[in-house]
Specification:
Blueprint: E1 3-4, H1 8-16, E2 21-27, H2 32-47, E3 52-57, H3 62-67, E4 75-80, E5 83-89, H4 94-101
Parallel strand pairs: 1-3, 2-3
Antiparallel strand pairs: 2-4, 4-5
Amino acid sequence: MAQAIASKKEFDELVSASSGTCLVDFWAPWCGPCQALAPILLSAEKKASGIGFYQVNVDDTPELAQVFHVSSIPTLIVFRYGKEIQRTLGVLSEAQILALLA
């Protein structure tokens, strides 16, 4: 299950300093599409070995949403070696998520 990130400091330690690929899901508990995406992400996480999966609740950590200019959710951002390489918005299929990470 994706690890929740609760602060900019924690984000920096887990994602920005990563030596690999990470997928960060910007979401909120009241967001219907976010809820629809959750089981798809969980399934993709099980198939994508070596990839860090993280979640940022935009209600609890609005500063991270601002830093990454997230204005709509769900937003998925793929980071490689701490740098953003891809961003998508909305609900994706498992195949689409795995393709983002390839």
